[in-house]
């Protein structure tokens, strides 16, 4: 049985989609929300396999998508939106979505999408899949340090030079906690786990 949470701010849409999904013998709608806070409460309270999320509802958007993904990394989030997929789908994927369905989709397309993401497969059109492939190819050709933001790069250089987080925080006028957050982000972007790897990378490329 596929357990589904559904969030949309329009009552008619909520009732219609809930009725559609509940009519499927392999789908159980375990919670319905009309706002971001309501969905957050449901995510914390009800174990589920798929979260069908209206991207355009008040208190929703990419921020809510990212928040739900952080709260329940194993929950497969299927975005439901009135925006064309090619406009925002890649951004949704970057925030943790498993798929994207336009509100113009048929009832069968929506049900199929729920089943597909529940199986651990991404649900994307061929156009968005091609966009994703192009982006991955482009990123693969970019040097790791070139993926960093300006502030992340500054923290990277200082870490590679042997400065501590406290020293970096003082030099940049930020808190140690913020400096630590930058360190975590840049290590993830560059595919490293230790400061020593940053130092070696910087030395090899003359970045110190």
Structure description:
The chain has helices at residues 11-22, 36-45, 61-71, 85-94, 107-118, 126-140, 150-160, 165-172, 176-190, 195-205; strands spanning 2-7, 27-33, 50-54, 76-81, 99-102. It is an alpha/beta fold. The chain folds into two domains: 2-137, 3-Layer(aba) Sandwich (Rossmann fold), CATH 3.40.50.2300; 144-205, Orthogonal Bundle (Arc Repressor Mutant, subunit A), CATH 1.10.10. The chain has a five-stranded parallel β-sheet with strand order 2-1-3-4-5, sandwiched between helices. Helix 1 (11-22) links the parallel strand 1 and strand 2. The radius of gyration is 21 Å and the shape is elongated. The model has no long low-confidence stretch (mean pLDDT 86).
Radius of gyration, Cα only, in angstroms? 21 Å
CA distance, first residue to last residue: 55 Å
User: Total number of helical segments?
Assistant: 10
Sheet of most strands: 5 strands, parallel
Strand arrangement within the widest β-sheet reads: 2-1-3-4-5
Quaternary organization: single chain
CATH class of the largest domain: Alpha Beta
């Amino acid at each position: 049985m596929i357990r589904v949470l559904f969030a949309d701010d329009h009552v008619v849409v909520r009732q219609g989609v809930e009725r559609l999904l509940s009519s499927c013998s392999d789908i159980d709608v375990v919670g319905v929300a009309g706002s971001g806070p309501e969905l957050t409460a449901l995510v914390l309270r009800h174990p589920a396999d798929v979260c069908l999320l209206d991207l355009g509802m008040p208190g929703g958007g990419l921020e809510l998508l990212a928040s739900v993904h952080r709260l329940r990394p194993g929950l497969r989030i299927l975005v439901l939106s009135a925006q064309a997929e090619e406009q925002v789908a890649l951004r949704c994927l970057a925030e943790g979505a498993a798929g994207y369905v336009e509100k113009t989709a048929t009832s069968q397309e929506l049900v199929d999408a729920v089943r597909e993401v529940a199986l651990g497969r991404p649900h994307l059109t061929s156009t968005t899949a091609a966009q994703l492939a192009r982006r991955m190819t482009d990123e693969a050709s970019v040097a790791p340090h070139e993926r960093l933001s300006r502030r992340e790069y500054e923290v990277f250089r200082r870490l590679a030079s042997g400065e501590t987080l406290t020293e970096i925080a003082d030099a940049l006028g930020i808190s140690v906690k913020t400096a630590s957050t930058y360190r975590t982000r840049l290590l993830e972007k560059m595919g490293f786990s230790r400061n020593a790897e940053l130092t070696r990378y910087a030395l090899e490329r003359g970045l110190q």
